[in-house]
Amino acid sequence: MLEVYMDDMIVKSEEEVDHTTHLKKVFDQARKYDMRFNPEKCTFGVKAGKFLGFYLTERGIEANPDKCRAFFEFPTPDSKKSIQSLNGMLTALSRFVAKSAQHALPLFKLLRKESAFEWTKECEDALQHLKRALSEPPVLTRPNEGETLYLYLVVASEAISAVLIRETEQGQKPVYFVSKALQGPELRYLQIEKTVLAVVMAARKLRHYFLAHSIVVRTDQPIKQLLARPDMTGRMLKWSLELSEFEIFFESRKALKAQVLADFIAEMTIPSTPNKNKWTIFVDGSSNPQGSGAGIMLENNEGVLIEVSLELAFPTTNNQAEYEAFLAGLRLVEDMEAEEIKIYTDSQLVASQIAGEYQTKDERLTEYLNLIKEKLTKFKQSEIKHVPREHNARADILSKLASTKKKKGGAHSRNVIQAEHSKTFRGIPDMRNQRQELDDTRVRIFEHRKPSG
After folding, report:
1. Domain C-terminal end among 239, 268, 297
2. I want to staple 101 with a disulfide (CB 3.0 to 4.6 A). Which of 112, 179, 301, 324 is the partner?
3. How many structural domains is the chain composed of?
4. 99, 133 in Cβ contact below 8 A?
5. At what angle do helices 318-335 and 393-403 cross, to 10 degrees?
6. Where is the signal peptide (predicted)?
7. Sign of CA dihedral 256, 257, 263, 264
């Protein structure tokens, strides 16, 4: 077999007796087209050797020991320039390191800071972890033609990672580790969106494997159902189209038996606290001549996703609609017995007034604000963040769906909770009449959304 990579080539033979014949054929072709080889860069008749920066052996693809030694012996960085050199060395070896981006986050953050260089204990711990990982790097294997490969994912708050593996008679063998540090808007993605992004990231970086093999993604997140929804918009639609090029299947995650792979999954529990009932909420209000509505999208740390389109059966200003949406989101997660919540709104006014950054002069909005602050005390931890409208697109669609809902005919086909909320003032009602309808529908949504297995 002859493999050519730009100006490098390798001739491989399964049987030693055939190797001379194979070399002769290559030399004949080179002579025919007047190609010349540099003898100093040629090696013949070996069972192992360095190629493309890696060490090829009968066992598989191994990290270049010289590069690993250089990384291991790298002194503690004392400037951003030395951090850049360290990151460059890590990039060359990242395919051998599980969740390299996640473990290198303190180093990445150090480069992003505009302040003076400061090497912290967190940075030192990250460096030592990476050095330990590269002191005994795993041996990567090459899949056979037509072999099915399996993808495992890890999603953390600031990084996503994946490992592509083979299942052989000798056990599970890693093919490639990939990871990515999340930046900007990606940090605000829902957990399930980050999971889909991890698949997309793996497909982009390992495109040659995805094109040549069937890929089975093993995850307990319901991304198969999410990607199959007919009402996808924005980035989810884009990702779905991008992944449709490949032969990808989904199944429940199974145990990883190989120690290096088991460690990959086991560490997934570090950045999260599954015992806590955490919810992320996106809210948006809409008011127009046709009516007013509130859109709420909720997701918990188990991947359960709920979408609510709430029609406000009374006239409101746009700010009042925004507050109604915020309050409805709080009521819903309160019913879910949430302990920690993170709420995103694209209303700068609402976010700033709740944070105490803006004064509230409107008497009606003051009543909303007081009730919201009272509700927030019921949670162990709460965080309110303002996001641009484009990062709150789904809640925006849900609010408009409610505010433009027709009274007769033309039922909507979206798979969301749709309910009507009666007049809020005088006094803000507790929605007891409406809550039964929400509870009944919520049960159906949970049965549909909750991951199987």
Report:
1. 268
2. 179
3. 4
4. no
5. 110
6. none
7. negative
Residue identified by tokens 């809409």 is 286
Last residue in a domain, options 245, 268, 291: 268
Domain that holds residue 253: 149-268
Tell me: pLDDT of 181 over 60.
Answer: yes
Query: Quick one: 297 and 394 in the same domain?
Result: yes
List strands edge to edge, sheet with 417-421.
381-386, 340-345, 278-288, 291-300, 305-312, 417-421
Residues 431, 301: one domain?
Answer: yes
Q: Is 398 exposed, middle or buried (0-12, 13-18, 19+ CB in 10 A)?
A: buried
Give the pLDDT of residue 412.
36
Neighbouring-strand partners of residue 217: 151, 250
pLDDT, one tens digit per residue, over 421-445 is 555 454 444 443 444 444 444 444 4
Any domain includes 142: no
Is the separation of the CB atoms in 72 and 134 below 8 Å? yes
Q: Which of 366, 299, 332, 362 is nearest to 439 (CA)?
A: 332
Nearest CA to 180 among 166, 193, 194? Answer: 194
- Omega within 30 of 0 (cis) for the link into 389: no
Cα-based distances in Å from 419 to 293, 335, 398: 10, 16, 12
What is the CATH number for 371? 3.30.420.10
Give the tens place of pLDDT for each residue, 16-36. 888 889 899 999 998 999 988
My answer on whether 34 and 80 are in the same domain is no
pLDDT at 150: 95
The structure tokens 């590069």 sit at 67
At residue 322, what is the residue type?
Answer: E
Cα separation, 93 vs 108, whole angstroms:
16
* Residue 87: CATH number of its domain: 3.30.70.270
- Here the tokens at position 306 are 């709920």
**Is residue 196 included in any domain, yes or no?**
yes
Separation CA 137–CA 142 (nearest Å): 16
Let me know: does 402 contact 419? Beta carbons within 8 Å: no
Whether residue 298 lies inside any domain: the answer is yes
Is there a domain that residue 336 lies in? yes
